[in-house]
Hints:
Enzyme class: isomerase
GO molecular function: carbohydrate derivative binding; glucose-6-phosphate isomerase activity; monosaccharide binding
Catalytic activity: alpha-D-glucose 6-phosphate = beta-D-fructose 6-phosphate
Protein name: Glucose-6-phosphate isomerase
Largest sheet: 5 strands, parallel
CATH architecture of the largest domain: 3-Layer(aba) Sandwich
Organism: Oryza meyeriana var. granulata
Bound molecules: 6-O-phosphono-alpha-D-glucopyranose
Amino acid sequence: MALLYAREAQSVFARIAAADYGAVFCHACGEQAHVGAIQKTHLRDLMHDVERCKAMTTEYEGIFLDYSRQRATGETMEKLFQLAEAAKLKERIEKMFRGDKINSTENRSVLHVALRAPRGDVGATGKALTNVVSVGIGGSFLGPLFVHTALQTDPEAAKSAKGRQLRFLANVDPVDVARSIKDLDPETTLVVVVSKTFTTAETMLNARTLKEWIVSSLGPDAVAKHMVAVSTNLELVEKFGIDPKNIFAFSDWVGGRYSGENFF
Ligand SMILES: O=P(O)(O)OC[C@H]1O[C@H](O)[C@H](O)[C@@H](O)[C@@H]1O
């Protein structure tokens, strides 16, 4: 986990560095000369420096990180830390984790890190969410169904699924909807609305029905804890009332029939 977060920081850092290198690095640190010098340095020579190599390793929560094989010296690292501070890297990472719309070109949150959230989420009343109702039709139904069926014979998946239930709502038959939720408790149920477009009439109707089911039992605030969406249409998902932090977004160039290959 620590390594994943470190990687996250690294990638944010790389983006900031790439975008603002000239403006931030040179102004804040005034060190273009160092860039020139390090560019002329061969990694082989740096690797002879035992002290440097030792200093460029770190360990956290059992994960060992060795970044000595980067063309960088202790001085480079000092400057990079200054750059990170000048570019407000920590603040930017916090914004990303908080779900702020840091993707300014598309005006959307960047929340793939939410996919790494620890398992065992609880609902609005603190009870574990053990039931999942997957709402979606067409590719948005068959993809999840395919994965569910395939994993049924996987011993590890079967073990994790013990005591849990997964139901699919793939049509607008009110009897089917009623039957699917009849023995489920909203307190322990998570509703996943799967819709690439988030406009499909059947899916939207079922999503509204289940939203009402949750709200009438647990109140409007419970939606944030009991409903998530898998979609390309972040605007409509938010309008529907699902917390942006609970959107598993994917790109519209993934066809519905390939739905099993992304978050579905
Ligand atoms: O994922 P959605 O946008 O809700 O679309 C769900 C389904 O809608 C229609 O039935 C289309 O013919 C399918 O190709 C699509 O998979």
